[in-house]
Write a structure and sequence with these properties.
The protein is an alpha+beta fold. Helices cover 32% and strands 23% of the residues. The chain contains 4 helices and 4 strands; from the N terminus they run αβαββαβα. Strands 1-4-2-3 form a 4-stranded antiparallel sheet, with helices on one face. A hairpin with a 2-residue loop joins strand 2 and strand 3.
């Protein structure tokens, strides 16, 4: 299969990744998944969460995120591509660190 050359837009697209640990006692549960989706949807970047061989769109549905089966102590990889990728990964990593406590926009 012939690989197409990257366009300037693709080559300039920002990428960011970060490993995070699920630290809350309940693991990655429904409320946490919902919080993550709401925060992820604030960004233009394409954001994925990877655990093992499973990859899920961070802007999808809570049930799809729950399918990762992430429990306390598990590591997941946050991946983002797009103009605000670094900010998206930073914000989502902070969400994991805060045990999924979402600050309301003021």
């Amino acid at each position: 299969m012939k690989q197409l050359p990257k366009t300037p837009d693709m080559a300039d697209e920002a990428k960011a990744t970060r490993n995070v640990t699920v630290s809350n006692r309940e693991g990655f549960h429904l409320r946490a998944a919902t919080s993550l989706i709401l925060v992820a949807r604030r960004f233009e970047a394409n954001i994925s969460i990877v655990k093992g061989s499973l990859t899920v769109d961070a802007k999808s549905t809570p049930l799809q995120l729950l399918g990762l089966g992430a429990f306390q102590g598990d590591q997941v990889l946050l991946e983002a591509n797009g103009q605000d990728a670094e900010q998206a990964v930073e914000t989502l990593a902070n969400l994991f660190d805060s045990h999924f406590q979402v600050e309301e926009n003021r």
